[in-house]
Amino acid sequence: MTFLSRPISRDEFIRAFRLCKPLVPWPETIAIGNSGGPDSTGLLFLIHRYLSENLHVPNLPRRVVSLHVDHGLQVASEDMAQRCTENAKSLGVEHHVVKVPWSKDGFPKLPTEGPLEHIARLARYRVLFDGMTKVNASVLALGHHADDQVETSLMRIMKGSTEDGAAGMKRCRRWGMNFGYFGAGGPMDYEGMGRWIIRPLLTFPKDRLLATCEENRLSYVNDETNFQPELTLRNALRHWLANDGKQNEASKRIIYSSSFDIDIDLSGGVGQIRSAVNALALQADDIDHEVDFILSRNALRSPPGTYLITHRSLASIENPKVQRAIVLRILRYASFHPWGSLAAQVNRRTNSLSQIVDKLWGGNPFQEQIRPFCAGGGVSWTPVAIFGDKFRFVDGGSNGNVNLKNTESFGWLASRQNPPSHDTMSERGLVNPLRVDITSRIISKLDSGDTSPLELLYDNRFLVTLNLTTIPSDLEKNIRNPDNSSQVWLLPRTRWFWPKVVLRSQGQEDVVLHSAAQSPKDLLLFDHLSPNEVDQWKRIYWRPYEEEVIAPWIKVDFMRPLTTM
After folding, report:
1. Beta carbons of 352 and 359 less than 8 angstroms apart
2. 270 C-beta neighbours (distance < 10 Å), count
3. pLDDT at position 224, please?
4. With bands split at pLDDT 50, 70 and 90, how would you rate the model's confidence at 546?
5. Is the pLDDT reported for residue 99 higher than 80?
6. 3-state secondary structure of 167
7. Is residue 147 a contact partner of residue 205, using CB atoms and an 8 Å limit?
8. How confident is the model at residue 538 (pLDDT cuts 50, 70, 90)?
9. What share of the chain in percent tops pLDDT 70?
10. According to the model, what pLDDT value does residue 423 have?
11. Which residues belong to any copy of the tRNA(Ile)-lysidine/2-thiocytidine synthase N-terminal domain (predicted)?
C-alpha cells in the first residue's frame, strides 16, 4: 500500500515528545499502551527510536515497556495479544499482556450488551494502571492522534460541552484519583496523583501514522469494530473522518441526530475541523498558563486545603474565559470529590459556574450582604476581611452592615464544604467518610512483614502516612489485645476538616496521637516560582484552637495540586 502523506520525521517527533513532559522529571521507565493497531504501533516505534538514539541525552527515560490489554470481548482477542507480543519483540521492546479479570477484584461481569465502550474503557485504564505498577512506570504514553482529538471534541460538543471541554485531550495530564477504577479504597485513589498520561501524537493525523508504519515496515492489526458506524457515535465520527467527511447512511443518522451547542460546520471537511479543534486546544493551553500565573502570584497563605485571594486581585481579571477557568481550578483544589473528576468541578455546569463568577467578581460582598455559599463541587466560598497575610471572618449582623478597618481589604476563602452532622448521617444510615477506623489496616500491614509505610487517603484531600516500623510498642500491644477494644481512628479536626490520628479505648477519653498537617512542596510546581517562594507557600498561617500533637512515625500531607496538571 502506498501513502501520499509523509511519515513523521525524527525532528517532528522530538518536538512533540518534549511538549508532553510532566511537571516532574522524566522517570526511568515509560510504559506505552499497545493495542496492536497502527497508532500505538507507530508510537511504540517512534518512542523507542527516539530514546535509543539519544542515550547521551540526560534526563530522558531509559526503559520502554509495551503494555497490551486483553479485554476478552472478542474471539480474536488472544490473536491480537499474540500479534502485539511479536511486534514488540521485533522492535526489541519489553512487552507485557495484562488481562481484564472480569467479575474479580472489583471488576464487573463480562459485558455482553449495553454501554460496552464505556465499561471496556474503565477496565482498560484500571489494568493499565496495574501494569504500570508491575513494571514500575509512572508515565503512560497513548497513541491518540489528531483524528482522535477531533472525535473527542465533536463528541463533547454534541453532549453540550463548552469551549474548554471541546478543546479535547491534553498532551499531558495527571492520572488523578479513581480514574478507571471500579469501587473505592484502592491504591489508584492516591498513587494516581504521582502518575501521568501523555499523548505525543495529538497534532499528527492518522494518515501520517499509517505512512510511518509503511515507511518502517511495521506490522499492525486493525480492530474492525472501530469502523462499524452503526455501533457507537464515536465509530460514526471515526467513519466520517476516515472517509474525509463522506458519510454512509448509518454514520449520517447518528451524527445528525446529535445536537451541537457550539457553532461548528461539518460540511467544511476534515481539515477545517482539525484546524478548529487545534485552535481550541491552543486557546485552552494559553488560558491554563495564565491561570497558573494568576493563582501563584495572587494567593495569600491560608490553612492547608483552602485558597484565599483578595477581591482586588480578582477584579483585575476581565476575560470571562479566564474567570471561569480560575473558578474551576480552585474548585478542583478545595473539593473533597476525587481530584480530576467532574464532580470536583460542579460537573462543569454553566449555572453553577456563573453563580460563583457573579459573586466573586461582583461588588463588596459585605455591602451586598452576600453570605457564605456553596454552588456545588463540595466547596464553600466565604467572604473574609484580609490584613497582610492574615484573615478574619466577619459577622454581618442582622442589618448586614460591616465596617472594615482602614488597613483591611475584602476577599474570598474557598474551603471544603461542611458535611452533614455525624448524628444526621447516623440517623440516615450513612457512613461518615470523615470518621475512619484504620485499626485493621494497621494490623494487616504489620502482619504482612512489608516494611514500607502504610498510606491512607483521607477525604480525597490528605495522605496519611504511617511508618509502622517505628510504631510505639505499647500502642501496637493495645490494638492487638482483644480485651481492651483499643482502636486507631482518623477523625476530623478544626473547621477545615483536617485529619487527626486518635487512639480510642472503651471507657476512656480519646488520645490524640497526631494532629499536624502541611502542604508539601512537590504539589506547588508552578514553573516561575523560586525556591524561597515555594517555602513561603508551605508555611501556613493558622492559629489552632489546641496545640498540635506531632508523632514522628506519622505524617499528614494535603495532596491536591493547584497547578494545571
Report:
1. no
2. 19
3. 58
4. low
5. yes
6. coil
7. yes
8. very low
9. 83
10. 86
11. 30-239
Q: What's phi and psi for 490, nearest 5 deg?
A: -100, 120
Q: What is the pLDDT of residue 87?
A: 92
- Please, what is the angle between helix 38-52 and helix 10-18, to 10°? 90
**Domains within the chain, CATH numbers bracketed:** 10-220 (3.40.50.620), 293-416 (no CATH), 424-558 (no CATH)
* SS3 at position 456: strand
The pLDDT, as a whole number, for residue 361 is 96
Residue 231 pLDDT > 50: no
Query: What whole-number distance in Å separates Cα of residue 537 and Cα of residue 299?
Result: 9
Q: Is 354 exposed, middle or buried (0-12, 13-18, 19+ CB in 10 A)?
A: middle
CA distance 156 to 166: 6
Mean pLDDT of 256-279: 65
Mean pLDDT for all residues in the chain:
86
Nearest by Cα to 496 from 464, 542, 455: 542
Q: Name the residue among 458, 475, 163 with its Cα closest to residue 328.
A: 163
Q: Report how far apart, in Å, the C-alpha atoms of 62 and of each of 34, 57, 231 are.
A: 18, 10, 40
Q: How many CA atoms lie within 13 A of 20 on its CB side?
A: 27
What is the Cα–Cα distance from 302 to 412, expressed in whole angstroms?
11
Listed ranges 150-159, 463-472, 539-548; the one with the highest mean pLDDT: 463-472
Question: Quick one: the chain helix, strand, coil %, rounded to 5?
Answer: 40, 15, 45
CA–CA separation, 534 and 194 (whole Å): 19
Cβ(390)–Cβ(282) under 8 Å?
A: no
Q: How far is CA 278 from the centre of its chain?
A: 22
Name the residue with cell 474567570: 323
Backbone angles phi, psi at 127, to 5 degrees: -75, -30
Rounded Cα gap, residues 78 and 221, in angstroms: 13
For residue 353, which of 384, 382, 320, 387 has the smallest C-alpha distance? 320
Say if residue 507 is exposed, middle or buried (CB neighbours under 10 Å; 0-12, 13-18, 19+).
exposed
Higher pLDDT, residue 248 or 486: 486
| pTM for this prediction | 0.88
**Is residue 401 within a helix (H) or strand (E), and if so which, with residue range?**
none
